[in-house]
Amino acid sequence: MAARKHDDETIKAALTGRTVAAAAKILNLHERRVWEHKARFAREGWSPEHGLTIGAPETFLLSKLTVQRGKNGEIEKTWPRYSPDMVKQMAAMRATVAAMQEELKAEKALPAPLHTLAHLLNCYVITDYHLGMNAWAEETGAAWDMKIAEETLVGWFGAAIAQAPDSHTGVFAQLGDLLHWDGIQAVTPTSGHVLDADTRFQKLVRVAISVIRRVTAMLLQKHERVVLLMAEGNHDLASSAWLRELFAALYADEPRIEVITRPDPYYCIEHGRTSLFFHHGHKKRMDSLETVFIAKFREVFGRTKHSYAHTGHLHHNVLRETNTMQIEQHRTLAAPDSHASRGGWMSGRDAKVITYHSEHGEVGRIIVSADMVRGAAA
């Protein structure tokens, strides 16, 4: 590829106060090339003739601009709207994962428990946890921040592990929307809706890594084999990817841990004649999941007799049985945020550990609520 004749700042300087034709002469470039640069600058948030001179936020592009002009054509107000630059966001995510893999040393293998029940699997289902969300109790009915969220999750796993049978396999089924927001700006990844967030993204990343490592260590003391599922959710499209890759690298030397790194947002675990399916619920709702799982995991479905699907996203308990499987939508342990409270979308707060037999399917479940973990004020 030929080297560029001019950098962006030089081209911007030539364009400032001039037509494209005049700038092209100064730069000794074809007008078409200058138009291409000008269009790219506009997408990146630089268009002085429309009142934009600062540029779009990092990893975002200008998607829409409304300009209010006075009687003489002068700019009075501008309303820029930005959308995610998926190329830059993916590059940033990959760089983050690479840096974390270099800085974090792989965990050493821990001794296995002395006795487990080979035919049993405990599935610890956590969904829509919104670790970095901030809720004001006076407004929403319950407080929530990173400190409360971390204490609640560790407390929940402590209670669930203590009550669950000593199964050979433990699955940490984190079904998405773990972090609440997905980058430097506290907005939803696709629509850009502003979220109630507990301070800084780097702090959120640090707490998320810490609490998952802590919970994983607890599961390794209980189970011979541990499976980590960090599912994609609509709030963490990019973060779920680096969570999967990070923990796969972190536990590369721990033979008792399997980290599911599947990039497609539909997941499957086979346990003898029992099959478990997982999806956050942001791409397909309950009434459409059955055929999607069967189509994507046709061989597993054909080998197994008992099938169970798990989803979240809507924060309400719903159980639906079809001709081929049971599909369950789960609650969240998190408090409602301002958006949910003001919209009247209220639900109970609990999570389940469900025990599956390799031959007989579901054989038990334990429900632990947020109130049980943190008291009535949770």
Folded structure, characterized:
With 378 residues, the protein is of the alpha/beta class. The chain has a domain at 117-369: 4-Layer Sandwich (Purple Acid Phosphatase, chain A, domain 2), CATH 3.60.21. The protein has helices spanning 8-15, 20-27, 31-43, 86-103, 137-140, 146-163, 201-222, 239-250, 286-296, 298-303, 338-343, 370-374; strands at residues 60-69, 75-84, 117-126, 167-174, 225-230, 257-260, 267-271, 274-278, 306-311, 318-321, 326-329, 350-357, 361-369. The strands form three sheets. A six-stranded mixed β-sheet has the order 6-5-4-3-12-13. The protein has a five-stranded mixed β-sheet with strand order 7-8-9-11-10, with helices on one face. The longest helix is centred in the middle third of the chain and has 22 residues, at 201-222. It starts with 7 loop residues before the first helix and ends with a helix. It comes from Stutzerimonas stutzeri KOS6. This is Winged helix-turn-helix domain-containing protein. InterPro entries: Metallo-depent_PP-like.
CATH class category label of the domain at 117-369: Alpha Beta
Widest beta sheet: strand line-up: 6-5-4-3-12-13
Overall average pLDDT: 89
- Radius of gyration (CA) equals 25 Å
Global morphology:
elongated
- The overall strand count is 13
CATH fold call of the domain at 117-369: Purple Acid Phosphatase, chain A, domain 2
The major pleated sheet works out as: 6 strands, mixed
What's the CATH architecture of the domain at 117-369?
A: 4-Layer Sandwich
Rounded to the nearest angstrom, the distance between the terminal CA atoms is: 59 Å
Q: Total helix count?
A: 12
Strand content: 15-25%
